[in-house]
Amino acid sequence: MIAILDLGISNIGSLNQAFAQVGLNGKLTRSAADIRAAKAVILPGVGAYRDAMACLRDNGLIEELRLAAKSGKPFLGICLGMQLLATQSEEHGRYDGLGVLPGKITLLPESDRVRVPNIGWCDVAPARAGILFPEGTETRSFYFVHSYHFVPEDSRAIAATISTGNARFAASVEAGNVFGVQFHPEKSQDAGLDLLSRYVHHLRQSGCYEQ
What we know:
The chain is α/β, with parallel strands linked by helices. It has one domain: Rossmann fold, CATH 3.40.50.880. The protein has six helices and 13 strands. It has helices at 12-21, 32-37, 49-58, 62-70, 80-83, 189-205, and strands spanning 2-5, 27-29, 40-45, 75-79, 88-89, 95-96, 103-107, 118-126, 140-146, 148-152, 158-164, 167-175, 178-181. The chain has a nine-stranded mixed β-sheet with strand order 2-1-3-4-13-12-11-8-9, sandwiched between helices. A four-stranded mixed β-sheet has the order 6-5-7-10, with helices on one face. Strand 5 (88-89) and strand 6 form a beta hairpin. The chain starts with a strand and ends in a 6-residue tail after the last helix.
């Protein structure tokens, strides 16, 4: 069973449909027991960091998610879900995250060329070969809605980047069994479906999912 967290903090219907299109029928849940039993976990989210962590805490899921990541299960964070993987966020204060991928969440720097929030299509360039962006993957456009970005302690965790002005930021992270994408694959048309398809293929190859 693949657990897709449904905490009312994401457009879960569209995401679930996108996964179904690429052959994954996950279980929408907010149950700690389901996370414990799952072979892989998907954590989507939109909105404020503080509110999302409070929602996880109120549902008794923080420690279960940390244990799931430590256990070696494939763990994918999407949009705010990727940011929740970090150690801490600076969004409207300082708030602890799940801490499964050391790093911090900080505000995008605004400039003449960059508006915050960053909303719309951005070119995502692979930073290295991995599961989500294998060798030979070309730069493609994905849909973003965010004001903050993930800065991993170890830059080798960055799987792909976007360029805003003169700076580059993490658009995706990958470290062992932990994966994250800042963009919305379910809103990114063919590029998003292709990425989700690669992730589902990885789950099958890992023996985590059979349809």
